[in-house]
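dumping this here before i forget
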Amino acid sequence: MISGDLEILRSFPLEAASIASSIQYHAEFTPLFSPENFESPKAFFATAQSVRDALIINWNATYDFHEKMNVKQAYYLSMEFLQGRALLNAIGNLKLTGEYAEALEKLGHTLESVASQEPDAALGNGGLGRLASCFLDSLATLNYPAWGYGLRYKYGLFKQLITKDGQEEVAENWLEIGNPWEIARNDVSYPVKFYGKVVTRSDGKRSWIGGEDIVAVAHDVPIPGYQTKTTINLRLWSTKVPSDQLDLFAFNAGEHTKACEAQANAEKICYILYPGDESEEGKILRLKQQYTLCSASLQDIISRFERRSGGNVKWEELPDKVAVQMNDTHPTLCIPELMRTLMDLKGMSWEEAWKITQRTVAYTNHTVLPEALEKWSYDLMQRLLPRHVEIIEMIDEQLVGDIISEYGTSNPEVLEKKLAAMRILENFDLPASVAKLFAKPKESPIVETGEEVEACDEALPASVAKPKESPIVETGEEVEACDEALPASVAKPKESPIVETGEEVEACDEALPAPVAKLFAKLFTKPKESPIVETGEEVEACDEATITDKDEPALKETQEENKAVNLEPVSIPPPKMVRMANLCVVGGHAVNGVAEIHSEIVKEEVFNDFFQLWPEKFQNKTNGVTPRRWIHFCNPDLSAVITKWIGTNDWVLKTEKLAELRKFADSEDLHIEWRAAKRSNKTKVASFLKQKTGYSVNPDAMFDIQIKRIHEYKRQLLNILGIVYRYKKMKEMTAAEKEAKFVPRVCIFGGKAFSTYVQAKRIVKLITDVGATINHDPDIGDLLKVVFLPDYNVSAAELLIPASELSQHISTAGMEASGTSNMKFAMNGCVLIGTLDGANVEIREEVGEDNFFLFGARAHEIAQLRKERAAGKFVADERFEEVKEFVKSGAFGGNNYDELLGALEGNEGFGRGDYFLVGKDFPSYIECQEKVDDAYQNQKRWTKMSILNTAGSYKFSSDRTIHEYANDIWNIEPLQIN
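structure:
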């Protein structure tokens, strides 16, 4: 476009008539549909392209201004950005909602019907991606110089179908007819390498050569701020290879698959979010995804830094111009990649590169589950990224030196524990100079290897021996076998369902070496139950990481059955792993948790050894959500009530003004308007549920909602068992007794179970079976409905959350890092029932203890409760036993729930022992639900509680969170376009 045309566009009047003309222009001249008609899908694309015109003007102006000012800029790297639909958010931030509604009416459409044509961008799964998108909205709104970087997943995670067999998965189709918001930057692409080898150049520098080369291509999505011209960028990478890698000779010879192999291998990197990683190929693909994100993004960031520096690049100033934030451990490879770039490509020394890297990079932790802290196979990483492994080994060696310098050598036992907990490389020998510090006198020279070991009363082979201070299992729980700990590769935890290598063992009954063959058969023959579990590879993350299903094999057997006993000497060492979270802590200048209780657990438990060494690195940044999308746009009825009573809509930018609602919490007039807004939203949801599920629900019933990723620790199972108990009690009563005791409820579930997480899929199946029974029971009628909403996503949440009255955040205490949906619910006047976990703690403090329904064990009690369960001291409440028997009785169909309910039984063992304390918290939960019924029957009290939840939610704006990141971690300043 020439400059004169650009000036005309910049002065283009944005009233309804001109907007209608712009929409018509795009329908005719940038069409994706045939010209015969102007139906809703075509109207959506033309409308979105019209909006994009306005965004591009501000977007280019923002980019040019940031280039000119050359200020420090933040870059947020995340594997997920769960944006939802963009149209209403974009025109809302541009303050053009009314104008676009009027323009579309002139063209024969409604804004609502056109907006509904937009598919949700399938770029995320849960809270991790939704948080990242909220952060981009706040960064733009607050005028901070920042970009986001992610991958452009062609098929997303999956589209969830609910059938008679439960959850089924099919590929997402969100890009099938194009994405009107993105702009392919074909001139912005970078090479990304895998495999190959490392050589030493003539100048002494290391060089990574050969291997497999692909190209990452940029696709940009504009992110507008609210009531500001600032429009920042989300840059997504797709992958391909150059055209010359199509093997025409093979293709013309009929070997079509072989001819296209290079292109297929490149493109599949960006096919699926979190591809299954139980196979070797799946692990390789996930690691390729992570490295592609890191490599392409850092090349882009460094290119921008060099360009803005002109002809005078001073690399020591990189941390003064660039802040890289790693959202969870997926972007960890930024650390060795930046080191590689600075040393191998820019000629810097190790010391210079390390100092720059540490000052540039920071890490957000999203999990308190030690088994979910990402690890990668050393051997796999060495094959795929050989130069990066060299650098990681050097970082680890330097770390060992730092630990020894800090703690000295006077107490080898303490030093050994520190090294075992803190090293980046797991199951590696110590450097010879360090190993000699731990040498012990030989006591048992009978072992063939000559190495000293202990097991029970006599020696185990060196190949399986492990220092007794470090009985590593992935959960971090200590295990015992005989009188001392077995190695992780063979130990079976008493309290945790997850171990590292999938090998199960039994405690020694006899001392070695006498019955060696018998003992080794026990140790290395696969048990009949075969409860193979997580391999230590990455476990999927969202607001927080997922445990891979414990009923599915996570490892292929590497030994033929029973052959171990014939090996001389027997040698099955634990796998060598790279601990990505440890690398993040070591390689960055800041580590933050995402809620106050989470950050304390990070400091006191997860990374305590690092916290003792570097306390200044650790911070808390409680999550937040954008009030624009999550109340102002998605809940216009309630927003209008808030604005009327506060007297201004400034609260959309300054959420602290929401606290002024407290002054009116007892006003009957406000109560009437508040309930009317809620009732309007409930009516919309009733229609939505009818459309999606076929179930009819009463909008005058209480809407009780749990919408989040399906996971055992989030305890949808506790919720549905509570519903079963409620249903059973109803069936035992007369109609009059039921109506007197129980408030009518619509219990709504939504969320996806990861495709290989069988136990989570069993929970989905139970929920749908219970719903099918209850919803067709004439004795119950509208007193109780149970609805599972298929394919839950952001757009569904924007309907459900404004209509919610009770929301369940009932994770096992100490296992949820923060959560963000709890904040959205509270902001929309929903009362929460939950445990003291994650951000629930702070929400309860802000909204008031009387306005939060609290139940369950506390985080500091969990470990002891699990020990008591393992010791056989737990006695189940008779109501809990009653509910389980009722489910088993066939009341909800012929499906067998033994595997699901079996996890709640027994005292210990894999897949047993109720690890997530459903049985322990069940009595407290159902008693708390009785308090919910009592409170809801008093609508005056309930409405006041609802108002006070909104009033107390002001702290949980992502604007507050971003200000804290900007000031405390990134050291960036707002830069507003005039």
